[in-house]
Amino acid sequence: MTHNLKVVGSNPTPATKIIHNIKRLKPDLISRAFAFAKHINATSTFDESSRNVEDLLILDPAEASWQHHVMIEFRTLSNDHPDLAHSPLLSAALLTLQYTQDHGSIGLTKTTAFKRVFVHWAVEHFEWPGKSSEEMFRYSKVINEYEFPPLEVLHYLLITLRLGRHFKGEFRLTKRGAELAQTPGRLFAELIPFFVLEIDHASYAGFAERPFGKWDVWMNVTNVEADHGTTERALFASFYGEEHDWDNAGWREMAAFSSCVLRPLEWAGLLAQASEARDGKHVHYVFKTPLWRSALKLDTDDMLKPVSVQ
After folding, report:
1. How far apart are CA 109 and CA 143, in angstroms?
2. What Cα–Cα distance (Å) separates residue 61 from each residue in 16, 71, 216, 269, 303?
3. Theoretical Cys-Cys bridge with 211: which of 110, 257, 265, 307, CB 3.0 to 4.6 Å?
4. Domain ranges of the chain
5. According to CATH, what is the number of the domain 82-182?
């Protein structure tokens, strides 16, 4: 299986490489981030007066750079919970595990990637957001695993979580994988938190640097900012300021944030995105899905305002 995926901490970005970006973070977000930080550990010796923003927003290089997520709690969901259907990654995992059960195994190439027969099946059955089978096959009738990133990522996750294994040129289920194939709620609990919080998303997104920040801040702020829907640019601006846009020098930072924060949350089924053309530009909207509300318990939940009904 040829891929560039990594678990966070396996090759973390040096803190000194991104300290210069701290000035880009909005002051009001820094204040909120410090408020979140007080709750990180009941035994913490956190000193608010020190206001050492580097300690809050950047982990030591010896630590996983995106691993500071003690304030993110995933609730246990029943196997028949209807909101699980919002997760493309969970659905793809169930389909892959069940396919393997039905066929006994999935063939592997010499580089241990899934063979094209299964890749084509996955393209047709995953119903992946933004990657319809019609679009995928429009430009090529032959698709390899690496050309369908969701499958490449899923393959890595199934092996890493020991839900499947490679044996004599085939992908086969482990006993644990076979059990979780029948229990979507349990599979969600194993798969989604690990995918969102533990995977270095920059390693497969094609970016040399990660967006700077931490999952607890990103998710707690997004919990409030996107509660009734927002635009991608407005959400980005709530973290890093309003000077960035897709048509200026800030596009790289926006692309990194979109690919390494918003996209994983969409793949997990926690966010949904839509776009429309407006004044010659594509405006991207971000919404929390019902699964976000069902599965996540965050410190900012008490800041949410109910939707007003006219």
Report:
1. 13
2. 9, 21, 18, 30, 33
3. 257
4. 32-74+206-302, 82-182
5. 1.10.10
